[in-house]
Amino acid sequence: MAGRKEILTEQLARKIAKMIELFPDSQIPVTWENVMAHSKKKYGHGFNRQMLGQKSWDGRKIIAEAFSEAKSVQRRMINDSLPKYRNAPRAALQKRIADLEARNLALMEELEKVRAQQIDELDSLLNTPRDLRKLIGDAVNREMAASGAGPVDELKQKRNAKKVIIKEMIEDRRD
Q1: Scanning 57, 71, 93, 126, which has its CA 20 to 30 A from the CA of 156?
Q2: Virtual CA dihedral for 63, 64, 69, 73, nearest 10 degrees?
Q3: 3-class secondary-structure state, position 134
Q4: Domain span at 94
Q5: How far is CA 102 from CA 22, 24, 84, 168, in A?
Q6: Sorting pLDDT into bands at 50, 70 and 90, what band is 9?
Q7: pTM score, two decimals?
């Protein structure tokens, strides 16, 4: 064989192919520039893109095949790491909306319970029968018993009757 000894041998090509396959896992972008730079660092010769991509052994372009495989792995990894929605702020907003809707639903249920309770209290207050004459008569009897059957002060009786009515209304509302 006359001429210069071949630098890019099949064995070296397989080593470079193995190095290219590790790029996606090492978070190194799979580009021809990176392949050339890393092969120069590791193997001491700066091969150009044409030589790396076109050189074939037994009809197989070992480096070019490894490059395309690594490039497709890198694309899959990027696509898998993307959020469900096109951008992260939109995903965060969607989550915030879902949280607020759940909170809104819980507050609506609580409000409905409070409304039902207040309506029941109001209904029991309005529908409880009260006889004013009986309440006033009871208040007068109590006043006369307390004062020792002296002269009757009508203004005082009315005030006491109102107090009794209010107390009974409060007691009925508690029941």
Answers
A1: 126
A2: 90
A3: helix
A4: 86-127
A5: 46, 41, 21, 42
A6: confident
A7: 0.46
